[in-house]
Amino acid sequence: MSMLEVKDLSIHFGGVKAVQNVTFNIDSGIVYSVIGPNGAGKTTLFNLITGVYKPTTGEIKLDGEAIHGKSPNQLAERGVARTFQNLQICMNMSAVENVMVGAHLRLDRNLVKAALRFPGLKKGDRELRDEAAQLMDFVGLSQYVETRADAMSYGALKRLEIARALAMKPRLIFLDEPAAGLNPKETIEVDHLVRKIADSGVTVVLVEHDMKMVMNLSDRILVLDYGKKLAEGTGEEIRKNPDVIAAYLGAHA
Amino acid sequence: MKKSVYFGLYLVVALLAVLPFVVPNSFYLDLVIRMAINAVIVLGLNLLIGFAGQISLGHAGFLGIGAYASAVLPTHFGWHPLLAMGAGAAATGILAALVARPIFKLKGHYLAMATLGLGIIINIALRNEAQWTGGPDGMPVPAMGLFGFELSSDKQWYWVVALLLSVSVWASLNLIDSPFGRALRALHGSEVASQVVGVDVVRYKVAIFVLSAVFASLMGSVTAHYVGFVSPNFADFFHSIELVTMVVIGGMASVYGSLVGAVLLTALPQALATFEGWETVVFGAILMGCMIFLPKGLVPTLAAKFGKGE
Description:
The complex is a heterodimer.
Chain A: E1 4-13, E2 16-26, E3 31-35, H1 42-49, E4 57-62, E5 65-66, H2 72-77, E6 80-82, H3 95-101, H4 111-115, H5 119-138, H6 154-166, E7 172-176, H7 184-199, E8 203-207, H8 211-217, E9 220-225, E10 228-233, H9 235-240, H10 242-249
Parallel strand pairs in A: 3-8, 3-9, 6-7, 7-8
Antiparallel strand pairs in A: 1-2, 1-4, 4-5, 9-10
Helix pairs in contact in A: 3-5, 3-6, 5-6
Chain B: H1 5-22, H2 26-51, H3 59-77, H4 81-103, H5 108-128, H6 130-133, E1 139-140, E2 144-146, E3 149-151, H7 154-176, H8 179-189, H9 191-196, H10 201-227, E4 229-230, H11 237-250, H12 255-271, H13 279-293, H14 298-305
Antiparallel strand pairs in B: 1-4, 2-3
Helix pairs in contact in B: 1-7, 2-7, 2-10, 2-11, 2-12, 3-4, 3-5, 3-10, 4-10, 8-10, 11-12
C-alpha cells in the first residue's frame, strides 16, 4: 500500500480551478518530485496535502487514513512536515530556537510547569538545544546556532526551514522549492542534503524548478500543467514524454 | 536565551529590597507601589501583545472585574477578601476563555475592535449596576486581611507588591524560554509555520489571553484593596490604552521593557505636574517622540544600541 494516496483532488478559488482531478500515489521511502510551469498548482497541491487549504473535492489518504480537511497541526501529529517556497521563518527568534520549535509536539508544553521552571522541563530544553544544534550542523548551518534569524542570509534561512522540519522527526517531508534563489554552489549543497534526508528513511516530496536536481534525485516525477496532471513516471519516462516537452518548450518544439 | 537574562531579575529584586529605605516620604512610597502594580499588569499584557503578537484594547475591563469582585463580594455578601479575589480571577478567566475562541478567529484591526468592545461592555455594566457597584461614583473596598492580620500600612503593601512583582518577572522569564513560550513567539513570527510544526494556534492564543486577563484581574483586586476605593474609571477605555502604551513605550516582547514602561508612564504625569494644564500636551509629545525615535520601545532599542541582546 502506498504511504500517500491522492485521488481526484480539486480546489477552486472562485472560478479559478487551481488543482483539477489530480490522482497519484507516493510509496514509502522514495523521493517524489512535482514539477510544472509557474502557476501549474504545485504549491497549491502542497497546501492541500498539508492542510493549509481544504480541498473542494477529492480525497487524500495517509497510510490508508483519510486526512483531507484536517488542520496542519493535526497533520504534524501524523509525521507530516513541510518547508515553504516563500520563507516562513520566525524572525523574532534565534536560529536555534526556530529549529527547537520544530520539536514542539515532542515536548512537555505545560504552562504552569514552564512558568515555575520545573527542572525536568529545563533538562529537556537543554537536550533539545543540543539536538537542534546537531540538526543545524546536518543542514550545514553550524556557524549560525546563536545567530538571530533576521541576521541570516536567504540561502541559510532556506536550510534553516529544512532543519526545523527535520526537528519534527517526520516520516514524510514536503520541500517547496528548496533551491529557489540559491547560487549554484548552494544548490549542489541542497541537492546533497535532500539525498541525505531521503537516505535517512524519510519520504521526500519535492517541488523544484532546477531540472538537474529533480532528475538527479527523483525516483518518480509528477508533472502538473494548469492544475491538471500531465504525466507521471520515472525521470526517463518524463524526459521522453511528448506532452511534457510540449508544455515546457512550446507545442511545436 | 542565556543565563544573563536572569541577571536583570536579581537587579530588580535588589532594587525592590532597597527602595523602601531610601524613598523620602509616603508620597513616593505610594508612587512606587502603583508603579509595581502597573508593572505586573503590563508584564501580563506584554506576554499577549509583545510575545504572542495579539492585541487587547480591553484589559482595563479585566482589571475592573477583579477590582469590583473585591469590592462587591465582601461588602454585600460578606465574602473573605481572598476568596473574592479568587472568584474575580476565576470569573475573568471563564469570561476571557468564552469570548476568546470567536475573537481569535479575527486578526489585526478586528481583534482590536472586538477586545475594545468587550472592555466597554464591562465598563458599562459596572456603571449601570449601581445597586451593587455604586454606579459612576464607585464604592469603598474593605481592607485585605491575611490570617487575622490586616494589611493597612503602605509599608506592608509595599512588600506584598514587591513580592508579586519579583515572582511575576521570574515566571515571565521562565515562560518565554520554554516550549510553551517558544510556541507563542513562533505563532507571532509566522502563524503558518507554527501550525505545520504542530502548534494549535487558536488554543495557544486563547491560553495566553486568559492568562493575561487573569493577571489583570488579580492585580485589579490588589489595587482595589490597596487604594480602598474603586470607580468605573479604573476599568475604562483610557486605562486600557494607557496599559498598551506602557507595553509599547517600554518595549514589545521585552520583560524588562514592561517594567520600564510601567515605571515611566506611572511617574510621568507626576513629574509633569509642574507644567500646570499643559502636562497632557507634554505627555503626548514625549510619547510621540518615543515612537518616532525608539519605535521598538526603550529597552529593546537601547539593548540593541549597546550590543547586548536581551
